[in-house]
Amino acid sequence: MPYSGRMEDIMKKTVVTVVGKDSVGIIAKVCTYLANNSVNILDISQTIVDGFFNMMMIVDVAECSKDFETFSHELEQIGEEMGCIIKAQREDIFDSMHRI
Amino acid sequence: MINIYEVLETNDMIEKENLDVRTITLGISLLNCIDSDLDKLNEKIYNRITSVAKELVPTGKAIEKEFGIPVVNKRISVTPAALIGASACKTAEDFVTIAKTLDKAAKATRVNFIGGYSALVSKGMTESDELLIRSIPKALASTDFVCSSVNLGSTKTGLNMDAVKLMGDIVLDTAKETADRDSIGCAKLVVFCNAPDDNPFMAGAFHGVTEADEIINVGVSGPGVMRKALESVRGADFGTLCEKVKKTAFKITRVGQLVAREASKRMGVPFGIIDLSLAPTPAVGDSIADIFEEMGLQRAGAPGTTAALALLNDQVKKGGIMASSYVGGLSGAFIPVSEDQGMINAVEDGALTLEKLEAMTCVCSVGLDMIAIPGDTKPSTISGIIADEMAIGMINQKTTAARLIPVIGKGVGENVEFGGLLGHAPVMPVNQFDCSGFINRGGRIPAPVHSFKN
Q1: Does residue B148 sit in the same domain as residue B288?
Q2: Contacts of A99 in chain B (CB under 8 A)
Q3: Contacts of A82 (CB under 8 A, 6+ apart)
């Protein structure tokens, strides 16, 4: 069966990263979007690298009604509005690279 | 659970150091298309490729989006056309129709390249092999995405010097046929010794007869990531340097393995191999030559370059082999000239010569790759360069290749622009002493003694 790209087929967790200069309101906005789309946040951490604010969330997208492409595109747009870069990537790529 | 520093490291590799998956190559056997009627053969080839590869580009794009890693090329490799056309093609022109069909199928499936316009003649040429080889100049001039390769020898069979001689003429004719485009046809033509059946990289990809009906092979990349990683061990001893290369190669390869597994699962096509190659691009920083400079050489080509490449190649394999369940293809560091800005700089500065590149090919994968030479180079000289390169592969039991571009109308020092991933190159000088007496002998160079290990 061809791959559908639907969320229920993507069993794994997704990593959302936010990179930007200013954090005022960004977290709230991202969290609101996630909540509105039934995406559960499993873990949040943040750090400052070279003066840039970096945030990472591990989220569970199993209940999300949107397909992955729409989900990541809408997050990107929120990032553009707030002047930062937001990316959604499946956790597998990080697991593959950093875990044996 | 994964932590933020690991996430940032991966994303820095992608965003700042040009980490990408160089290619997902779908191998398709065309053996079941064979027909004695040329029109029927072409129709079957087109239908087979377009039906099997329909999902290749959409799958590649979906993977890019979901994992956030660029998959630069989606390609197709097919069974060597000399075998497929043997029954239907009576002339070189007949073979050109197959090339055009492959090109049409590549365009329909929106892939970047299609490889397999090939002949395997390491011991002898069949009539159809020779027709295909003679059709190469026309085939490459009249298509956009078709890549051609010819296997001229192997450790087990020795070198087919008749074919080596013929290829000198064919390379030059291909250059002439595409003279109006800086002889770009030659960028899509490569000759091999010990060609692998499962190579995902162009121009040499073909789907070997030892392979299944369909297979997914993936080529990774990452010279930029390697160079950046080596910054952290500047001045350290070789043990430390090698450990760093190995660990970095492991990380790069794991991404390739993940992409290969996903592509295989989504398309319902078995996973073949990961090709552990550091493949440079003309993008600044995505360069093998830059790695040498980071290791402590002023320029690629300086004394020590062959040792640096040997170390790099071997450590990449050591790190990569553990990261993937199946490794194959060419696997090692590529040293194309036109596709690597650091190599181009080294040539322009006079640090890197054709002879030094030849020495480097003894310890790396592939060989004399994307090297522009003067357009008035004699065919026998081209054959001589090819013979030298093939001999290195034969004796060292490794794959070697030559992709030489005699640029018609241009001489030493002039620049050639191929565009895109093929980059640009300064025309390099070639040794002017004659070798025609050697090349014109004809026949075969026998297999070397170390092939009798059975």
Answers
A1: no
A2: 2
A3: A20, A25, A26, A29
Contact A95 B255 (CB under 8 A): no
- Measured CA to CA, the distance from residue B409 to residue A100 in angstroms comes to 54
pLDDT exceeds cutoff 70 at B453: no
Asked if the Cβ–Cβ distance from B7 to A56 is below 8 Å, we say yes
**B residues 30-69 near A, CB within 8 Å?**
55, 59, 62, 65-69
- Shared-domain flag, residues B109 and B242: no
User: A47: which chain B residues are within 8 Å (Cβ-Cβ)?
Assistant: 4-5, 8
A2 belongs to a structural domain: no
Residue B34 lies in a domain: yes
Which domain-ending residue is among B152, B177, B193? B193
Q: Exposure of B3 by Cβ count < 10 A (0-12 exposed, 13-18 middle, 19+ buried)?
A: middle
Contacts of B55 in chain A (CB under 8 A): 2
pLDDT of the residue at B277: 87
Least confident of B66-70, B218-222, B419-423, B434-438: B419-423
- Mutation target vs B (from A50, A75, A76, A93; most B CBs, 10 A cutoff): A93
ipTM: 0.87
Chain A nearest-CA distance from B394, in A, is: 36
Residues B185 and B328 in one domain: no
C-beta pairs of A80-83 under 8 Å, 24+ apart in sequence: A82/A20, A82/A25, A82/A26, A82/A29, A83/A20, A83/A21, A83/A22
Contact criterion met (CB < 8 Å) for B258 and A5: no
pLDDT digits (tens, 9 = 90+) for B262-293: 999 999 999 999 998 888 988 888 999 999 99
Closest chain A residue to B10, measured at CA: A94
β-pair partners for A40: A60
Total-model pTM: 0.93
What's B41's domain CATH number?
3.20.70.20
Q: Are residues B260 and B356 in the same domain?
A: yes
CATH code (residue A19): 3.30.70.260
Beta carbons of A98 and B69 less than 8 Å apart: no
Same domain as B412, residue B292: yes
pLDDT digits (tens, 9 = 90+) for B202-259: 999 999 999 999 999 999 888 999 999 999 999 999 999 999 999 999 999 999 999 9
Task: Name, in order, each residue with C-beta under 8 angstroms of B123's C-beta and a sequence gap of 6 or more.
Answer: B157, B158, B160, B444
Q: Could A56 and B4 be called an inter-chain contact, meaning their C-beta atoms sit closer than 8 Å?
A: yes
One domain, residues B222 and B127: no
Residues B67, A58: C-beta atoms closer than 8 Å: no
Confidence (pLDDT) at A11: 54
pLDDT for residue A83: 87
Here the tokens at position A70 are: 């729409």
Helix (H, G, I), strand (E, B) or coil at B196: coil
- Residue A81 distance to chain B (closest CA, Å): 20
- Does B257 touch chain A if contact means CB atoms closer than 8 Å? yes
Q: Assess if residue A35 is contained within a domain.
A: yes
Question: Residue A3: is its pLDDT beyond 70?
Answer: no
Task: Supply the pLDDT for residue B233.
Answer: 96
Domain assignment of residue B49, given as a range: 27-56+66-193
Contact indicator for B48, B30 with CB cutoff of 8 Å: yes
- Predicted local distance difference test score (pLDDT) of residue A1: 42
